[in-house]
Amino acid sequence: MATHSGNAIRWYLIWLLAISISLMGLQYFGLNRVIRIDAKSRNAIRLMDDSASGGRSTSVISRDGSRFILDADLKPGFAWPYMQLEVRFTRNTKGIDLSKFNEIRIKAEHQGPAPHKLRVFLRNFDPAYADPLELNTWKPNEAVFVPFPGEEVRLPLRNFAVSNWWRNDFQVPIDQAGMDLRHAVLLQINTPDNAQLGHHRIIIDHIEIWGKWVSREQMAIGVLFLWIGSALFFLLMDLRQLRRSLQRSRNREKQLKQLSQTLEIENRTIGDMARRDPLTGVRNRAGILDELFQECEDAHRTGHPLALIFMDIDHFKLVNDRHGHAVGDEVLREFARNLEMLTRRSDYLIRWGGEEFVLICPETSLEDAVKLAEKARKHLEQIQWPMGIALTASFGVTVLGDDPIQKGLERADAALYDAKNAGRNCVKTSPALSGEQMQ
Q1: How far is CA 123 from the centre of its chain?
Q2: pLDDT (average), residues 371-389
Q3: Does pTM surpass 0.85?
Q4: For the structural domain made of 251-438, what CATH number should be given?
């Protein structure tokens, strides 16, 4: 980064460091995603006890503001008397994806015979192992906790485990037996396995499932890419500066050599070469070399536009095949004569080869060059050709930018190729390249 200002780089690095710290801080302290469940939530709620399985326990649920109050009298008559609160996340078995959440926060209180423990289940549905009509087949991801009155208990989801009884009862394959929260359908809060008989009251202030919209790993990767992108940016800036310096160092002799290669002039001494096309009377490639190079130099020095227009008679081969080369030659002469009528004295019309012509227009913008090409296209479409032939022409237009003349010629030729591919009898353009684009 030697070519850049030291102060600018220093300030950029300070800014980049501040952005990185801010992003990591935002991820740590913010970007929280919370699912809250309380008595005011719209989730479907159901209270169950062992009476559904033949037991004699009874239970009732009431609400106090946003709190659930669960009262149960656990009585003998069932192997494991229990009370259970069910909270449904969705009405279907698709559930919600909790795999990217971090923890469950529960503020609850358990009154009654000890032990004062509670079990929480997150039931996941997967058709690979679960029956939509049999709740017991839905995978129970379980954790046990001790609630403290007035305090919020935090249960990391990574500490949940699939209940052993479920794996044993349903003989689940090992690849399906691990914890899975991608389709969580139910949340259940139960009295413990060894709940004592008697009156139990469970007060649930709220249940919150916490996660991050962007994980710590994702944010770290994003910051890493930010630094890598910045490094690449400075590297590309240095490379651009180097290439621009090399471009400015090109001398006139090198440009002349490149231009001569583009024009395919085998003999670099053009003094003895014919400067006019013997058939049409317009200039040929060799005849325009000196003027073309000078116009290029002037355009680069003054910044004035230099327009390049490639023209080609559509389906000219058919003219020679159907009417003979004599008629084809007459068409070429008429084509050149009409083009000369439409050009200014300062323009250069060149027979590039075969039925292809080039028009060089000094101090002409791309917009004006397109207008000139469109005017010529319409004129050539309407005139009377030899033998009553109906002919059209295609045009490729560009203007010389900061690039050498041979690049401009290549772009104009490419634009003509686009016009041919677009169905012929049309004008296509290729914008000039700036110095930065050339790099």
Answers
A1: 37
A2: 92
A3: no
A4: 3.30.70.270
